[in-house]
Design goal:
The protein is mostly helical. 70% of the residues lie in helices and 0% in strands. It contains 20 helices and no strands. Helix 2 crosses helix 6, helix 10 packs across helix 17 and helix 14 runs antiparallel to helix 15. The radius of gyration is 23 Å and the shape is globular. The protein starts with 5 loop residues before the first helix and ends in a 12-residue tail after the last helix.
Length: 481
């Protein structure tokens, strides 16, 4: 059930909000959580009810492991729990990939299981792993069955994040004394949601045809000219940002409508001055997961530059593989791992950067590196990626004209990502200081969202335009991961 679908906007969401607030006000907080949990299971089962037992099984098994880790010796239970979670995602997401590579290398003919990829398995598996590790570290404690179920299944963030840690959301579910200002919750949440759906429907889905045209030509083996290659790569760069950050905004806005605060997932990543800075701003919750549960346990930066570089390589290779079972994703991760190592070395030998007096140059170079790396992320094969890069290098000539539309779209995209504030900066008044600090935002500084009529009217108009155009929208890119 897409956030921008009519059944979600006009049936599921109003009904769930109405039932939730009626139960919280006139029955009990516990009853409202039960209703919200049931609604979240319905939301997940809407895609394919056959995979609902997988989600339920993950919740039950990980909750039992969490209880065991909290009560007895944590290490054996933690190891078994993490292995089971990785085995689950490995079976459904990577079995075909690994077996096909074994067949290619060894000349065998092992049958491929061909399992369909269950929706959201990458996201809820990472949340479960973080929960088990945090319980073992004594940084959180298991909730009751209801709290655990809602921690995993809460529908705003279930499908594509943000990746929420147990200690970030469980205390909010357990706060039975919280006084809801439902009008503020819905007003602020709907405003953030309106920006998110606008990013998806009005921006991301309008960049998609230009990106699909160029990458589709490369996938067919056609030569791609300079103009088509660069417009395709740039349009995909903006498409994936507006698509995924739009989803995150919608998730945060929907959660706020119910009175809950999710972590910020984006902070103007295309204004980053280095790849290190980029990963502090892009998919922030994934970056923090990889840092806290993989990079630091591997040794982090504690054992010199060579060990740091190898740790970054491992982390980013696995981060690339997490996005998809294809070598192009792994290579995309490798490129970012190399860039992170280069930036760390450069920070050591030149703490002020190569061009400290011209930070915009660093922004442009970082942005161009990200654009080139996205080619491997989007391409269907290495051959297709290389055809795109040949075109971007001008090896196939300028190529035929692509019309004015992609250039206008790119100009609009650049104006937005480099000229307008990010969503979290505008709404920082409604985030707590710890959440802002984690996202790299200075608490109590920056812009403030107000309820001035022209702002409310603009958001209402954007929401109206998005709903009118929602009938022709595609699913979110990160639904594939």
């Amino acid at each position: 059930m897409l956030f921008n679908s009519f059944e979600f906007l006009f049936l599921f969401l109003p009904a769930t909000l109405g039932v939730y607030y009626v139960l919280r006000r006139w029955v009990a907080h516990h009853a409202a959580l039960v209703a919200l949990t049931i609604a979240s299971f319905v939301f997940y089962a809407w895609w394919d009810i056959r995979y609902l037992p997988l989600l339920l099984g993950s919740i039950i098994i990980n909750h039992l492991f969490g209880l065991a880790i909290a009560r007895w010796r944590p290490q054996p239970w933690l190891t078994i729990g993490v292995v089971l979670n990785l085995a689950s995602i490995g079976l459904f997401k990577y079995a075909d990939f690994f077996l096909s590579n074994i067949n290619a290398v060894a000349g065998t003919d092992l049958p491929l299981p061909g399992f369909a990829l269950p929706l959201a398995i990458s996201f809820f598996t990472f949340q479960q792993i973080s929960f088990l590790v945090d319980v073992a570290r004594r940084e959180t404690r298991p909730s009751g069955w209801l709290g655990q179920g809602l921690f995993v299944s809460f529908f705003p963030q279930l499908i594509a994040g943000p990746i929420v840690r147990h200690d970030q959301i469980a205390p909010q579910y357990e706060d039975t004394q919280r006084k809801d200002d439902w009008s503020e919750n819905i007003g602020v949440g709907l405003s953030i949601f309106a920006i998110g759906i606008s990013k998806k429907v009005l921006l991301a889905d309008n960049f998609e045809p230009f990106a699909a045209s160029a990458f589709g030509a490369a996938a067919r083996g056609d030569e791609v000219g300079l103009l088509e290659a660069w417009t395709g790569a740039l349009c995909y760069t903006f498409q994936i940002f507006f698509d995924f950050s739009g989803y995150s905004d919608m998730a945060i806005g929907l959660a706020r409508m119910f009175g809950y605060k999710l972590p910020i997932n984006f902070n103007a990543p295309y204004r980053a001055r280095s790849i290190i800075d980029f990963w502090r701003r892009w998919h922030i919750t994934l970056s923090q997961f990889l840092r806290d549960y993989l990079y630091i346990p591997l040794g982090g930066n504690r054992n010199g530059q060579v060990r740091r570089a190898s740790n970054l390589a491992v982390v980013m290779l696995l981060g690339g593989l997490w996005h998809g079972a294809a070598w192009t994703f792994v290579f995309w991760g490798a490129l970012h791992g190399l860039a992170l190592s280069w930036c760390n070395w450069l920070n050591k030998v030149r703490p002020n950067g190569l061009l400290p007096s011209a930070p915009w140059v660093s922004v442009v170079f970082t942005f161009l590196f990200v654009v080139i790396a996205w080619v491997f992320f989007r391409a269907t094969s290495f051959d297709a990626a290389l055809l795109m890069l040949e075109g971007m290098a001008g090896l196939n000539g300028i190529g035929p004209g692509v019309g004015d539309e992609p250039f206008i779209a790119i100009a609009i995209g650049l104006a937005i990502v480099w000229g307008l504030p990010d969503t979290a900066s505008v709404f920082m008044k409604w985030f707590d200081d710890a959440t802002l600090k984690t996202a790299g935002l200075v608490p109590q500084k920056g812009l403030r969202f107000t309820t001035r009529p022209w702002i409310s009217g603009t958001l209402a108009f954007l929401l109206f335009l998005s709903i009118v155009n929602a009938w022709n929208t595609a699913e979110f890119i990160y639904y594939n991961f």
